[in-house]
Design goal:
- The protein has 256 residues and is of the alpha+beta class.
- It has 6 helices and 12 strands.
Length: 256
Amino acid sequence: MASSSTQPNSTLYINNLNDKVNKDELKVQLYALFTTYGKIIDIIASKSEKLRGQAWLIFADLAGATSAMRACEGMIFYDKPLHIHYARSKSYATLRKEDPNFIPPTAANASDIALAHSAKRLREDETADNERQAKREKSDEDEEEMEIDDDDEPSAKNLSVATSATIPQQLQYPSARLLCTNLPQEVTDSVLSVLFQQYRGFQTAQVTWSPTPNTAGARVKMAQVFFESPELASTAKEALDGFTLKKGWQMSVVYI
């Protein structure tokens, strides 16, 4: 269990992250890991020299942040143990959520360049935050959503699958092998592994292209996920069947 001398709040500070991981991939994987503990408002990560290896996770409430900290402290994430604490102060996103009229202060010791651009950045940040908040208000409060950036075309790195793959036959009884369907094109083996490795007995996830498009005619992926036993696979299936990987994309999980 993480110990922290700072006041409990809904923003978590994480360090000891593997700084060799791409920033966008890191944020997606952090979201996938922590979203099961509560609604996440934002994830802040940077590859700058001073901030690399660190991230801030902003939860909608204290309960979610606390559950996540207790469950994931010390967890191996990209070959390194996570170090998790409450952030020293509430994030601007949290303060805006609590008080819509909140305006972030300008630091007194900011550099001349930062002072020159602070007003412009503040306006841009507030506009972006308002747009994100409007989108969130339209979605179901209880909906889980993994924010994966869209790509016009699947990358060559992810084309490690056979387009001639067939869909395995569904079983009506528990099995140690699961089939996940209706996966967005951006989902990879590692993204899906982060979701399933939270459940005991997980072995591997193998993502491939589905031979058939979804009901909207879009090209989709599917995956086979392997567990040590049918009992352990059942726990993961019950938890993740219907999980929203991306807005409008609910994953289906069945036995095969």
